[in-house]
Amino acid sequence: MLNYALRRIFMACLLALFVSFLTYALIFTAGDPAAAIAGSASTAADAENIRQIYGFDDPLIVQYLRWVGNVLQGDLGNSLYFRQPVSEIILSRFAVTAQVGIFALIFAMLIAVPLGVAAGRWPNSLIDRGALFIAVVGQAVPSFWFALLLIIVFSITFPILPSSGLGTWRHYVLPVLVLGYFSMPAIMRLTRSGMISALETDYIRTARAMGLSERRVLFDYALRNAALPLISLSSAQFGFMLAGSVVVESVFAIPGAGRLAWESIGRADLPTVQALVLCFSLFYVLLTLLADMLNAALDPRMRMK
Amino acid sequence: MTDIVASTPPAQDRAARRMRRPRWMGHAGLIIGLAILLTCLLMALFAPLVAPHDPYAQDLLSRFAPPVWHEGGSWNHVLGADHLGRDYLSRLLYGAQISLIIGIGTAIVSGIIGTTIGIAAGYFGGKVDSIAMFFITARLAMPVILIALAVVALFGSSLTVVMLTLGLLLWDRFALVTRASTIQLRSQEFVTAAQIQGASTLQIVRHEILPNLLNNLLIVATLEMAQAIVLEAALSFLGLGVPAPLPSWGLMISEGKASILFEPWLITIPGIALFLLVLGTNLLGDGLRDITTPQGRN
């Protein structure tokens, strides 16, 4: 187990380094950070000065290593817009995004897992067809449009829920609904296929032969085994959800990391954008690492891979 | 006695007819998906012929003209007109072109990248496979929308930039699927036979591996196409997709957002078009998978 864990952690670090290099190269070579810092009222000479002060003339790899060194010390650079350290700005924003994301994931699981269990227990039944229909339709609805539709219905036609900001629990309903429905189809499909293959196994036949109630067979025996791959899937979905929060947060005006990213891109605030992209990727790497560890702890077969 | 004799032939007949019928005809989702996609394709191709107005022509007198089924709507602007008085139906028809160009273009770009990586990983295995898997995991860790937004903002928004960016970001599923199939194909007898005959790796890939992957590639391509269409719309909605006067459906929704209180149809109409196109593409992909794999969707 320790061996496996060390190997996975090493891979995760390598991955984080690689992804951060890619995004760094992309954002800092495509944009002109010196011109962005100097602002629109600057001359070419100003930009040249800044380029020398910040070392933007150095080879990319040198700049990147310097940046990594700073990041490791907790210094993500200064925001060009807020004129203060990026690390101070994004922490509270990430807390908001993660909060909405966790609610959304719980909501998605609460709907999708029971639906998947039922669909897997009675394949090709009415409930299976209905669940599949919901999944297919759900996958095709663009989230930003769905968000606007919900605003039209619940904030304008029947004004019962607020359409923007965060304050009371009512503010969370619509964003959580939009973010959550997005990951429902995948969770439901995986639960369904997991249940179908679990229900065909010998231990289920034994459990049934021993006269256990159907509820115990389904939830204590079949679902437990079907749920293992759900750990990986839901952690990946959570990562995608956070990254997808850009859209939802901008529609509902939620002061989270996604909205900050969108605004920073519009303001050409490159250090903030770079830091946010890094944090979103790191979060994903960390999540999948945790999921792998959890899987390995629960299922010894996974450690052999 | 006579009853039994009389009732058997039709039953047999029906079973036989079902056997003779091609498999795709029995799949409702596939037919619906194909129909939707073909309709969109025809809309896009013949937009210049069918569109009642110029999609860019502004007419301030018909600003916010409601659709024909609303009070005060007229057949002149069947789906109404937007905040600049541009005919909504015409913009919708031309918008199909953008969605399809993005969808197909992205699927081709990402398909080439993903298939190359996937085949190399599956065929050579070992170190090559490890490196490829590393790339795939790295790609999955990158937040697609965020990076696409940043790239479009930095390189300037245009149809080509959006298409290439999405193509460079969405190849992971292609790589995973082709890798898995190539691993299976690699140990097949016909591949070994070709190797013994002295065929080069490139020849084996071209003549033995690729033809057997086509089915899967087509399925993944439709799913990626749907994803690219949604992403383009989302990017345009956020103001960093295709540039403004173009009638992208995402951009139309974004422009309609300001009128959400009084003209909600400005949002619902392009949204329905987007939903139907994505639904159709997904249905087609799911249907193709169902009829080409023996186990179907299980």
Automatic annotation (TrEMBL), chain A:
Main location group: membrane
UniProt keyword terms in alphabetical order: Cell membrane, Membrane, Transmembrane, Transmembrane helix, Transport
Gene3D superfamilies: MetI-like
InterPro entries in alphabetical order: BPD_transp_1_N (IPR045621), MetI-like (IPR000515), MetI-like_sf (IPR035906)
Entry-linked CDD domains: TM_PBP2
Subcellular location: Cell membrane
Protein name according to UniProt: ABC transporter permease
Record organism: Paracoccus alkanivorans
From TrEMBL, chain B:
Domain of life of the organism encoding this protein: Bacteria
Domain ABC transmembrane type-1: 96-285
One cellular-component annotation, GO: plasma membrane
Membrane topology annotation: Multi-pass membrane protein
Annotated SUPFAM superfamilies: MetI-like
Main location: membrane
Keyword Zinc-finger on entry: no
PROSITE patterns from the UniProt entry: ABC_TM1 (PS50928)
Spans through the membrane: 24-51, 98-124, 144-171, 217-240, 260-279
Keyword Protein transport listed: yes
Record's signal peptide: none
GO biological process: peptide transport; protein transport; transmembrane transport
InterPro entries reported for this sequence: BP-dependent_transpt_permease (IPR050366), MetI-like (IPR000515), MetI-like_sf (IPR035906), OppC_N (IPR025966)
Keywords for the protein's UniProt record, in alphabetical order: Cell membrane, Membrane, Peptide transport, Protein transport, Transmembrane, Transmembrane helix, Transport
Localization of this protein: Cell membrane
Family: Belongs to the binding-protein-dependent transport system permease family.
Protein name: ABC transporter permease
Protein source organism: Paracoccus alkanivorans
